[in-house]
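Checked the freezer inventory, then went back to the computational side. Two predictions to log before the end of the day. The first one is the construct we discussed on Monday; recording sequence and C-alpha cells without edits.
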Amino acid sequence: MFFVAAKLIWFVIQPSTALILLLVAGIVAIGLGRPRAGMLIVMLGTTGLLVAGLLPLGVLMMLPLEDRFQRQEPDGPVAGIIVLGGGIDQSIGAARGVTTLTEAGAPLSGGAARLHRWHREPHAGRPDRIGRRPPLLRGNGHPGRPVDG
C-alpha cells in the first residue's frame, strides 16, 4: 500500500505534473466563475512551464552536486577501473550484434578513456613492471588478457 501511495503522491507533486495540474485548476476556477483567480493561476502555471521547459534547470541544479568534490587522480598504479551505470542498450545491441550506448553511456566511454590513458603509463616503484600494462579483470575478478592497442 505504501508503494502505491508513494508513486501516486510523487506523480502529483513532481514539477511537470504539478504545473499542468495548476493549469487545470486555473481553467476550472475560470469555469466556476472565478475568472480573476483562474487567470492568475493559469499565468503562474504557464510561466512555470515555460521557465522549466526552456531553461536548463536540471543542469543548474546538478552543477553544485558535481562541483562539490574534486576529481581525484590516482597517486599510484591503477589496478582496475569499476564503472557503475547501465548505459548499454540491450535490445538494439542484440538486434545489431554490437554494443550500443544509451544517453547514460558517458560513464562507460569515460571509463574507456581512463583505461586507455592509464594503461600507457609506466608503473612507478616496480622496475620489473615499467612499461608493462596491468592485467584486465574479467567479470569474475580473475586477470584476463590485456587489450592490445
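The second is the one RB wanted added to the comparison set:
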Amino acid sequence: MTSTLVNGFVLGWSVAWPPGPVNAEMIRRGLLLRQQGGGFWSAWRVGLGACSADFLWALAVTAGASALLNKPQVRISLGVVSLGLLVILAIFFSLAAWKTARQGQDRQEKSPGISQSAANTAAAVISSALSSHFPVREISGSGWR
C-alpha cells in the first residue's frame, strides 16, 4: 500500500513538475490587475482547470484509452489531426500578429465579465491539457513508441 502511494505521488509530481503553458498562464493571470481580469482567483481557476483536465486524462487512461492509443492507425490519425490543428492555429495567430503589427499599436483587450472570463479560462485550460500526450504517456507508462 505504501509503495503504491509513493509511486502515485512521484508520478503526480513528475507530471506536474515541467513548466509549460498552464504555468505561464497562471503567472500571467496572477500578475494582472483585478480590473483586467487578473489576480489570485483568476490564476487559481486556471490551475483548477488544468487539474480537472489531468484528472480526465487519468480517468481515460484507467478506462483503457492507453491500449487504444497505442494502435498504429489511431496514432497516425491523431498525428494528422494534431498537425492540422497546429497549422490552423499558426495561421490564425500569424494573421493576428500581422494585423497588430500593421496597426502599429498593441492590442488592448477589454476585461470580460466574470462568468465569461471563467468560461474562457476553463475552455482554454482544459483544451490545452487534453491536447497534450504527456499525461497519457506518463500515467500509462507506455510512452509513444
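For RB: The mean pLDDT is 75. Residues 20-106+123-140 form one domain. Let me know if you want it refolded.
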